[in-house]
Amino acid sequence: MPRETFQQELDELIGEVLDLGTEVEGSLENTVKAMETRDARIAEKELGVDIHYKARGAEIERDCMILQARQAPVARDLRLLYTVQSVTNHLVRSGTLTEHICHAIVDTAGCERDEDLEATLTEMARTARNIFGEGLDIFKNRDIERARNLQAKDDKVDLLYSEALNLIANPSDGGGGAPEWRMRAALIVHYLERISDHGVDIGGSTVFLVTGERIEDAMQQYLERNIDQDEE
Amino acid sequence: MDYEKTGEERRVSEISRDHRDTRERFEEPPSGTQGTPASGMRVENLSAYYGSFKAITDVSLDIQANKVTAIIGPSGCGKSTFIRCLNRLHEVVPGARAEGSVMLGEQNIYGKNTDPVNIRRRIGMVFQKPNPFSKSVYENVAWGARINGYRGDMDELVERSLRQAALWDEVKDRLKESGLGLSGGQQQRLCIARTLAVEPEVILMDEPASALDPVSTQKIEDTMDELKQSYTVVIVTHNMQQAARISDYTGFFYIENMGDPGRLWEFDDTEKMFSNPDRKETEDYVTGRFG
């Protein structure tokens, strides 16, 4: 097959992205564990990962730029480089948000908490982690059928988001925990919702990679498909 | 059309008609930059043969006026044969013939009463290797127009043609020097100017930059945008990036099995062909996976 070197460089690039994704997924997993076990020491280990992820992301972007300059990619190769840059951006942003959550966990380690709100946050974190992991897996395996269903799973996060905000705005009889914790909880809710969206977008980027179909079009198809299902 | 005469017979009959055609062309309105707008072309079920060998089969596509259409594909897939069918140059090869329909505007160029010499004036061609006449730069441009009975200001025509071919600034002080003394890139642009001077409606280019250095190639490419304002351009190229850069539409020719005739495998907007083509073979070719 011609262009073996180019293909090898593309394979290596995908490997770099998947490695980065696995690391961010690991950070997210630790964040969930820290929330489940109320163990701030686990979260503390993740402080400082942001700068590392950003550096990795910059390396991948540079590699993409060099490949574009040297190899003049078109069609699926061009879509791949575009998707790699897009996915890398989602990964780095997710990594940054994960560190923000860990900071919040560490900073509020001794604060009194609202059990209902904490349970909601933890459930939201698990769901966001699962969606993020699934988005990454879809990219790895080019499994676009799952990508088309990922948006539906994100609906659960949106539901938990509303529930958490409601608990923050309307504390239970017990007082709703320390004000600082509740303030940080509001931010965590937002960060988790964003991480979940990044996972969905990684899946959407994979649809574009495989089919050339724009992400927005894929979402439109998803919406139209729901209408059809409702009709049935 | 189904032209059945041999290439040689046709050449003789064409020459005998040439004088009459020239007189007729005195009465024709000019085209190109000074006259009628460029025409589009419609190709339907075009097949071309060399003797019993079928080189291309069943090609149908619309060539849009005032656009650049690129023809790409691996070697031997029939790109040059196709483009030569568009101005009836294919049939000058002994034993070669074409079947199907090729419309230039409203005229079937293979119609019974259509004169191929006139068609070749309306549909000019630039070849892979620059082939200027052994004449001055000025005469290279003026000659075709003169024998076609051009009665306007020849100096103005020569300058305009050379400007359109992005060559004027480089040769304006050496118009009386031999065209053969120019560099390869300049010679090719001189051939483009020569083609423009007879004011065709369509310009066919068969790998016009394949023998040129990158700077000359760039200059040829830079002329494309201007040329399509006045002409319809069809270009055969092996340079995928060139097709992506300069064309509005791209046709991919492909031979499925060795010995089969070439087919138009996919035809679409260039943007689509180089970002998300419909067929795997097209994608494999444009990404350099074969060919």
Kindly report the average pLDDT value of chain A. 91
The low-confidence parts of chain A are none
According to DSSP, the number of beta strands of chain A is: 0
Helix content of chain B: 25-40%
Quote the average pLDDT of chain B.
87
**N-to-C span of chain A:** 48 Å
- Radius of gyration based on Cα positions of chain A: 19 Å
Helix content of chain A: over 70%
Number of beta-strand segments of chain B: 10
Query: Which strand-content bin applies to the residues of chain B?
Result: 15-25%
The largest sheet of chain B is:
6 strands, mixed
The SSE order of chain B reads HEEEHEEHEHHHHEHEHEEHH
Report the span from N to C terminus of chain B: 33 Å
How many strands, which pairing sense, and closed or not: the largest β-sheet of chain A?
A: none
Structure, described:
The complex is a heterodimer of chains A (232) and B (291). Chain A is mostly helical and 232 residues long. Helix content of chain A is 85%, strand content 0%. In chain A, helix 4 runs antiparallel to helix 7 and helix 5 packs parallel to helix 7. The radius of gyration of chain A is 19 Å and the shape is globular. Chain A starts with a helix and ends with a helix. Chain B is an alpha/beta fold. Helices cover 38% and strands 22% of the residues of chain B. Chain B contains eleven helices and ten strands. In chain B, the strands form two sheets. In chain B, strands 6-7-8-3-9-10 form a six-stranded mixed sheet, with helices on both faces. A four-stranded antiparallel sheet of chain B has the order 2-1-4-5, with helices on one face. In chain B, helix 4 packs across helix 5 and helix 7 packs parallel to helix 8. Chain B is globular and about 50 Å long. The two termini of chain B are 33 Å apart. The chains are: A mainly alpha (232), B alpha/beta (291). Chains A and B meet through helix 4 of A and helix 9 and helix 11 of B.
